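Customer escalation, tier 2.

The customer says the design service returned an amino acid string that "doesn't look like it belongs to this structure." They asked us to rerun it and document both sides in this ticket. The original structure tokens are below, unchanged.
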């Protein structure tokens, strides 16, 4: 009992002291996991976003390049070799069929002489050195600002004497809605840039020190000589929106704290004696022992009292009185009762069916007394094991908190089915003359307190007088707690027909040891 109280006190101390620490630990672990997993998710999403963006940009570049190349082929096919009126018309025809070709012109010795839109130029335009030239002799002129051609910034692609003019706005959709990473459309070697985001992604010095990863992608055209390069120098959970990061951090820390709170109480609950007993009952970890009852005159075994036992890993060997009370207070005593009766009948059915003079004593409680189906169900169980109902003794303890009327009705019904009724723990509870005179008990079991009283000089006469009075009721008398030879001799000399239960003859034994006795 002391050990159990110590465990209970320790549980309370842990609960009070450890709860805040558990919640804090859970919040920290949850937040760290969020950062770790969040980083992986952010890295993956960044790569996906950059790939999708690059694919769209590359598709747009291929579409524009297809039209430029098609314009060169068509000019060659139409044999545009000068700035004659006929050739200018041909140039206009080419421009009208191309969405992204803004204008197309004819060159003589690197000088623009005419264009589809302007006709013959009043001011001939000398082109600057090309920014880039491909192995196929395509020349590129980027970011040209010349009012002769357009008020906008233009790009020029030259092949031979034909120059295709495109507006910088053909990639406007990508410039107007810049992504949260840097990108560029450039030659395969990255040396010449056709379109880029101008490297606008920047963070403060403090954020730059936080854990991060560089995510880069490169997707190249399968038809042409350029690729889309993307780069996000600061990728990680700490570089998402600050408000979102704060909200997610708070959310996951709260979730972690709640989970820890639940785990803590579940762990604490798993250590309480109530919970462990409930699990023991559910998992059938209780077990039974049987204490033989002998006849004083012959010392032969005439019956057994079934005793339920529980040995727990945490609390050790727990007193039946304690765990029976716990099961009652927590409303699962019915499962304990069913376990005791089912197991006892199963374990002793062979011994009882082969020895009709033996009986089995079963302690009953308020649950059995107030269950209107208990007697009939027990009768069916007993008979199904080929045991006689007169071989089953139902012990009603004096300590029971039940009305006289209920006990009397229960006893009558039990005796009608052939069961034997015993008044247990006489001298320790609340039974009175009415119990002894009006309830038809077949047997009275005298508590160990009674035995001690017979050898107490101060109270000896009282207990002897009480014993003589009980003897005149013509009931069988069982002396419990007989542990010495002197106690046995006194009982034998008083009445050799008395029954004895105690360590002097036998302690409670497991069923295997009981079977050896027979």
């Amino acid at each position: 009992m002391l050990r159990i109280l110590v465990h209970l006190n320790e549980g309370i101390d842990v609960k009070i002291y450890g709860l805040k620490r558990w919640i804090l630990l859970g919040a920290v672990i949850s937040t760290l996991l969020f950062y770790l997993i969040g980083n992986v998710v952010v890295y993956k999403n960044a790569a996906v976003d950059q790939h999708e963006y690059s694919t769209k940009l590359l598709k747009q570049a291929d579409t524009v390049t297809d039209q430029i190349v098609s314009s060169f082929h068509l000019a060659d096919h139409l044999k545009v070799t000068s700035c004659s009126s006929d050739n200018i018309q041909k140039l206009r025809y080419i421009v009208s069929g191309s969405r992204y070709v803004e204008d197309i012109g004819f060159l003589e010795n690197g000088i623009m002489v005419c264009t589809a839109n302007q006709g013959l130029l009043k001011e001939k335009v000398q082109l600057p050195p090309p920014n880039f030239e491909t192995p196929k002799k395509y020349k590129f002129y980027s970011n040209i600002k010349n009012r002769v051609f357009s008020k906008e910034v233009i790009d020029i692609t030259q092949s031979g004497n034909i120059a295709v003019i495109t507006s910088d706005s053909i990639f406007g959709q990508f410039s107007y809605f810049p992504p949260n990473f840097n990108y560029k459309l450039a030659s395969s070697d990255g040396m010449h840039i056709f379109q880029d985001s101008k490297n606008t992604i920047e963070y403060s010095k403090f954020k730059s020190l936080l854990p991060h990863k560089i995510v880069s992608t490169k997707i190249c055209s399968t038809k042409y000589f350029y690729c889309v390069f993307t780069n996000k120098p600061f990728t990680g959970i700490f570089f998402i929106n600050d408000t979102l990061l704060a909200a997610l951090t708070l959310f996951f820390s709260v979730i972690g704290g709640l989970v820890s709170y639940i785990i803590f109480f579940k762990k604490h609950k798993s250590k309480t004696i109530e919970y462990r007993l409930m699990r023991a009952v559910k998992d059938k970890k209780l077990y039974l022992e049987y204490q033989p009852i002998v006849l004083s005159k012959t010392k032969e075994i005439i019956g057994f009292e079934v005793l339920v036992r529980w040995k727990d890993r945490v609390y050790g060997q727990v007193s039946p009185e304690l765990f029976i009370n716990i099961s009652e207070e927590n409303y699962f005593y019915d499962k304990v009762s069913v376990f005791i009766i089912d197991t006892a009948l199963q374990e002793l059915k062979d011994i009882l069916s082969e020895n009709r003079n033996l009986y089995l004593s079963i302690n009953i409680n308020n649950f059995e007394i107030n269950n209107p189906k208990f007697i009939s169900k027990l009768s069916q169980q007993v008979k199904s094991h080929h045991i006689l109902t007169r071989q089953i003794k139902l012990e009603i303890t004096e300590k029971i908190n039940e009305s006289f009327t209920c006990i009397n009705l229960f006893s009558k019904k039990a005796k009608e089915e052939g069961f034997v009724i015993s008044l247990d723990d006489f001298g320790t509870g609340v039974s009175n003359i009415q119990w002894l005179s009006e309830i038809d008990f077949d047997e009275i079991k005298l508590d160990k307190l009674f035995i001690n009283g017979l050898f107490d000089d101060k109270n000896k006469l009282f207990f002897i007088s009480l014993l003589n009075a009980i003897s005149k009721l013509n009931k069988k008398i069982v002396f419990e707690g007989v542990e010495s030879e002197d106690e046995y001799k006194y009982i034998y000399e008083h009445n050799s027909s008395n029954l004895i239960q105690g360590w002097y003859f036998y302690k409670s034994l497991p069923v295997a040891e009981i079977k050896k006795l027979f």
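Tier 2 assessment: The sequence is consistent with the input. The chain has three domains: 27-171, 178-239, 284-517. The CA atoms of residues 380 and 389 lie 9 Å apart. Sent an explanation to the customer and offered a walkthrough call.
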